[in-house]
Design goal:
The structure is a homodimer of 336-residue chains. The first copy, chain A, has two domains: 3-124 and 303-332, Medium-chain alcohol dehydrogenases, catalytic domain (Quinone Oxidoreductase, Chain A, domain 1, Alpha-Beta Complex); 128-278, NAD(P)-binding Rossmann-like Domain (Rossmann fold, 3-Layer(aba) Sandwich). In chain A, the strands form three sheets. In chain A, strands 3, 4, 5, 6, 7, 15 and 16 form a seven-stranded mixed β-sheet that branches. Chain A has a six-stranded parallel β-sheet with strand order 10-9-8-11-12-14, with helices on both faces. Chain A has a two-stranded antiparallel sheet with strand order 1-2. In chain A, 25% of the residues lie in helices and 29% in strands. With 336 residues, chain A is of the alpha/beta class. At the A-B interface, helix 7, strand 13, helix 8 and strand 14 of A face strand 13, helix 8 and strand 14 of B.
Chain lengths: 336, 336
C-alpha cells in the first residue's frame, strides 16, 4: 500500500470543463505527521461550486492550483492514526484531496456515526448541501405558511432539500427541473406540490404563471439564467430570492447576456441575496441536528446518484453540468 | 377664477415618452366639498418613478388613467378652505393633480412651514426624494465608518442626498453622474470624495477600480444598466445594493439586455434590495426631522433645477430622462 491514485487539475477551462482538464496519476501514499490521520476515501462528493475553483479568480474559496490534487468533500475510513481523537475503523468526513488516501490533520476531520444515518448522507442531506438548503431557505427565503415557493435546480442535492423545508414550513412548493424522472420524483416522492420540466415546457413563464396563481413569494435559485428570468415577473411584493447558485452561467466563456432585472427588483421590492453555507459555520451543529431529526421523522427524504470507481470522478463532476444527477452526485471509491 | 389649466395623459408611451403623450387643456376650477381645501399650485415635482405610472401595468403605484389628470407631488397655497385644519394662506404639500388648482381632501394634505425651510425643500431634501435617500441608505445600504460607497445617478434629487448621508456616516463616497457640471458639484459642493462622468470615461469599470482601491461595500443604485454592470465586479463580500431606481431601463421598449449578474451575487454574497419610500411611511416624521437638522447644521446641501410656467411641466419631466436636471427638478407655476 505505498502507491495510490490521485486526480490533479491539469488545465484551466474556458467555458465548459472537459475530461482533459483533469489528470489521473499514481503517487505515494502519504506518511503521517504528528496529530495526523490516514483516511481511506470511501465516497467523494462532486458539487457545482467546484467549477468556480477551476478558474484562477478571486472567490469565496481559493482556486484549485494547477498541477495539484483537487480537493472537496469526502467521507472515509480511518486506516491509521497519530491523533488521540481518531482510531482505525472510525468513519470521518472532511475537505480532502481527490486521492485514495489522505493524510489529514485531526482538526480538519469530523467523526461521523454510520448507525444514525447512512455514510452518504453526511455529504448530502446532513452535509454541505443540506445545510446550504437549510440556511438559505430559513434565513433568507423565510417562507411563511401559505406562501408560494419556487425552487430552481429542484432535483439537485440542495434544491430537493430546500423545497421540502419550505413544505415543512407550510408553503406551496413548485420545483423546476430538467427531466421527467426528476419532476416525477419531486411530486411523487419529495412531496412538492407541482414540478415543471424547463426543457419541455414551451413557455416556462406561462406554465409557472398557471402553477403559481397567487404569485411567488420565495424563489430559491440554484441556476440563474433563463429559468430565473421566467420567475422574476411573477414575484410578489417583498419577495425573497436566496441566490444559492448560478449553474447556468458557470460555464459561459465571455459574457452571458439576459434581460436586465433591475426594474423587477425596484417595482416589487425584491431582495436577492447571495450566500454560501460557510457564512453560517457557527450554526452548523444546530442546523445538522434539525435536518437529522426531520430525516428520522420521515419529513425529509433525499436521493443520490452514486457512480462507482475512483477513475469515474471527473466524469461524474462533468455530468453535473448536463443535469445527469438526481439528487446528490457521489462517487464510491472503496467499500464501506 | 373659474377656468384653469390642467395636464392629462393622452397616450401611453412605448419606449421614450414624448411631448404628445401629454395634453394641456382648460377645465373648471373645482368647487369644494366638505372638509376640502382649494389649493393653488406653486411648485410641481416631476420624478423618474412617474414613467412607470404612464404604463398600464401593475406596480407599487397604480397607473395614470388615460384621459385623466396626471398627479404627483405638489407644494401649494391654500386659497379657500372648508376644513377646520387649514386656512387661506397656509402652505401645504400633497399628492395632487397637475392643474393650477386642486380641491383636496384635508387628509391628503400636510401643512408646511416656510420659515423653517424653503418651500421647495418639501419636494426635495425634506420630501419624498430626501426620505428615499435616507431610508435606502440607512436601512439597506447601512454604510459603516471607512467603508466605500458608490452612488449612481449621484447628481439627482435622491443620489446627492444619499451620498451625503454616507459621508455623514463616515464612508468614502464616489458619485457617478453624466456631466462635468454634475461631477464638479458633487466633489466641490456636496462633499463627495470623488465623482466620475460615465459619459466621458473611456472605461468606467477601470476608472471605478482606480477610484475604489478597497472595493465597494455599498452601491446605492438609481440607474441599473451599464453603469451598474461596471460596479458589480468591484463589490466586496457582503456588499449591499439598495436598488432605488433603474432609470436606464425605464424607457426601453421590449427587452433590455445586459450581462447576467447572478454569479456576482453568489460569489460575493451580495444583497440587492428594491424599496420604495412608502415602505417606511410610519417613520417619515423621524426621517424628516433628521434630514431637517442635518440641513440646519449645514451637513447636508441640495440643489434644484426650477423651470418656470405651468406649460413647461411635460418638458421638465421628459428632461429627467436626458439627465438635464442637477438635483431636484421642479416647475414653478405661481408665485409663493
Amino acid at each position: 500500500m505505498d502507491k495510490q491514485k490521485r486526480i490533479l487539475l491539469s488545465k484551466r477551462p474556458e467555458g465548459m470543463p472537459e475530461r482533459n482538464h483533469f489528470r489521473i496519476e499514481e503517487g505515494p501514499v502519504p506518511s503521517l505527521g504528528e496529530n495526523q490521520v490516514l483516511v481511506q476515501t470511501v465516497y467523494v462528493s462532486v458539487d457545482p461550486y467546484m467549477r468556480g475553483r477551476m478558474e484562477d479568480t478571486k472567490s469565496y474559496v481559493p482556486p484549485f492550483k494547477l498541477g495539484e490534487v483537487i480537493n472537496g468533500g469526502i467521507v472515509g475510513k480511518v486506516v491509521s492514526s497519530r491523533s488521540t481523537h481518531f482510531s482505525a475503523g472510525d468513519y470521518v468526513t472532511g475537505h480532502l484531496g481527490w486521492q485514495e488516501y489522505n493524510a489529514a490533520d485531526e482538526n480538519n476531520l469530523r467523526k461521523i456515526d454510520p448507525e444514525s444515518a447512512p455514510l452518504t448522507a453526511y455529504l448530502g442531506a446532513l452535509g454541505m448541501p443540506g445545510l446550504t438548503a437549510y440556511f438559505g431557505m430559513t434565513r433568507i427565503g423565510s417562507p411563511q405558511e401559505g406562501e408560494t415557493v419556487v425552487v430552481s435546480g429542484a432535483a439537485g442535492a440542495v434544491g430537493m432539500i430546500a423545497g421540502q423545508i419550505a413544505k415543512i414550513r407550510g408553503a406551496e412548493v413548485i420545483g423546476i427541473a430538467g427531466t421527467e424522472e426528476k419532476t416525477r420524483y419531486l411530486t411523487d416522492t419529495a412531496g412538492f406540490d407541482k414540478a415543471l420540466n424547463y426543457k419541455t415546457e414551451e413557455n416556462l413563464h406561462e406554465a409557472l404563471k398557471d402553477a403559481c396563481p397567487d404569485g411567488v413569494d420565495v424563489y430559491f435559485d440554484n441556476t440563474g439564467g433563463p429559468v430565473s428570468e421566467a420567475v422574476y415577473p411573477l414575484m410578489n411584493d417583498f419577495g425573497r430570492i436566496p441566490q444559492c447558485g448560478a449553474i447556468s452561467s458557470y460555464n459561459k466563456s465571455g459574457d452571458d447576456y439576459g434581460p436586465r432585472i433591475h426594474p423587477y427588483i425596484v417595482k416589487s421590492r425584491l431582495r436577492l441575496q447571495g450566500f454560501i453555507v460557510s457564512d453560517y459555520a457557527r450554526e452548523f451543529e444546530s442546523g445538522a441536528r434539525q435536518l437529522g431529526s426531520w430525516l428520522q421523522e420521515g419529513k425529509l427524504v433525499y436521493e443520490e446518484t452514486v457512480n462507482e470507481g475512483f477513475d469515474s470522478i471527473p466524469d461524474a463532476f462533468l455530468g453535473l453540468f448536463e443535469g445527469k444527477n438526481l439528487g446528490k452526485q457521489l462517487i464510491k471509491v472503496s467499500e464501506e
